[in-house]
Amino acid sequence: MDGDVPGYVPIVRGGGTMHVRMLCLGRHWNGLLYSYEASRSDFDGLAAPPLPRDFRLLANEIAGAVGMSLDADLCIVNYYDAAGRMGVHQDKDESPASLAAGHPVVSVSLGDTARFLFGGLRRRDPVDAIQLESGDAFVFGGPARLRYHGVSRIAAGTAPPELGIDGRFNLTFRQY
Ligand code: SIN
Ligand code: MN
Question: What are phi and psi of 128, to 5 degrees?
């Protein structure tokens, strides 16, 4: 995440600092505007790197394996250290057409296990806690596309040793 176009810690609308390091591929998510753009106008103005073809095909295949249609054109890569977390939110900044079609979010986790919270369509709905382990894919689309979700904690030191990493990478693929 720290090549020519580095990951960074977003500051969101309202001034809060996120508890992840983020890098967007294909299209940049601007956390001040809650919208997508070609270049990182909320950070360093660099263009979002392209989404690698292999990533796109993997995401589309995962969606297809559970009977959903996706032609991914962007990926948000989040890195969580031991203190990383993400408040409960909806993913609703993709195009109205994509959301209406229910094209899923395909989430792929690598590294430390996360406690993932998956709620309902209203913020106050009850949430299920799901352990997302390295290698897990989690897909939410169709009527579940706008379900609230977040990450409440990272189980430090649980990454498979062969990966040689600390922390957790989560890749969420979407179709704008
Ligand atoms: C996200 O909600 O965008 C990320 C979820 C995760 O890290 O599992
Ligand atoms: Mn999300």
Answer: -95, 140
Q: Distance between CA 94 and CA 69 in Å, rounded?
A: 15
AA identity, residue 78 = N
| C-alpha radius of gyration, the chain, whole number | 15
Map out the domains of the chain as residue ranges.
52-174
Q: What is the pLDDT of residues 20-39, one digit of tens each?
A: 999 999 999 999 999 999 99
Ligand 2: centre distance to CA 91 (Å): 5
For the chain, give the percent of residues with pLDDT over 90.
98
Q: Is 99 helix (H, G, I), strand (E, B) or coil?
A: helix
Residue with tokens 């390091």: 21
Average confidence (pLDDT) over 146-152: 98
pLDDT at residue 156 greater than cutoff 90: yes
Supply the residue whose CA is at minimum distance from atom 6 of ligand 1: 170
**What backbone phi and psi angles, to 5 degrees, belong to 27?**
-155, 145
Q: Is the CB of 29 under 6 A from ligand 1?
A: no
Domain spanning 52-174: CATH 1.20.1330.10:
no
